[in-house]
Amino acid sequence: MGGVTVLLAGDFRQILPVVPKGTRAEEVKACLKRSTLWPLIKILKVSKNMRVHLGEKESAGGFANLLLEMGNGDYPINYLMITIPDNLCTVVFT
Question: Which of 6, 38, 61, 66 has its CA 20 to 30 A from that of 80?
């Protein structure tokens, strides 16, 4: 029998299933990683951020790394606040 190739893309830390009037436990139970199909899925990881690689701004790579560190819980937090480095910020006065 032949199979069907399906491409799923996204960050599981950012996309949760919608369960109307559901509890947190019901949302977790409904996610793809809890599916009976999950063991059959082959995971391929992106090794290079092409948006940053093809972009012109040098700070884009630093910002991409900062987001990954925050998402992985590796970025230091002081008093429940995250400090973004000055070289990644643009101050706009209105």
Answer: 61
